[in-house]
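Lecture 7 notes: from sequence to structure.

We start with a single chain of 245 residues. Read the sequence below before looking at the structure.
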Amino acid sequence: MTLGWGRQLASRNASFHEAGLAGALLAPLKVAAMLALIVVLITLMAWIVDWIWVFKVWPDGVDRLKFILATDLARALTLAHWQGVSPDVVTGSANVLYEAVFKMTGVHDMGMRFADGTALSIPDTIARNTYIGNRAAIEVAMIGTQLLGVRLATILLVAPLFLLLYIVAAADGLTQRAIRRACGGRESASIYHRGKHLQLVLIAMSGAACLLLPVSIDPRFVWWPAAFAAAILMRMQWTFYKKHL
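Now the structure, written as tokens:
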């Protein structure tokens, strides 16, 4: 009896931080930490892809990456103009990500300080030699970070289309579910789960293609077909949702 009470008490203590007021207060912090971790991982993956293509594949190296940045920036600004959104959304996203990675860490200021040619202390001289030795890789990372910021802004600009199609598809799917409940239509848990999981796969693949591929991609050719395909899967998911829940 004592052992059972101890297990029950331990279970309550373990779930204390996940329920009630503590859970409500910690939930935004958990979400923010998770989003920050995802952005860090995506940034590292983008750097690795850019380094491989700049140093191993492209004959013109960093110039090709700069051209892709300029092209994607022009497309994102055009998309923002079509939607009546301020261009600062695009440029601000690139600048915020750059500042968070390089200015807040001091890498940007370090490069500016090492470029003026003034006398440095021994530790600063060692740091300067290390910086100069990896200058090309750092420059690629800086350009790649700005490119990633522009592409993230593009995703934010196409997000309303996803939201609109999701609402329409969910409404139609729930209507079909109500008809099935009234008429005794068949139920298929496998179709429901396939629709739900394929949505995640589709969005993940579309996001990876737009964020990581070392080519300039028109977002209309990726996100618009992906949005309509996701809407079909959303309708399928809600249509075959459990009838008697």
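Residues 103 and 109 are 7 Å apart (CA to CA). Keep this in mind for problem set 3.
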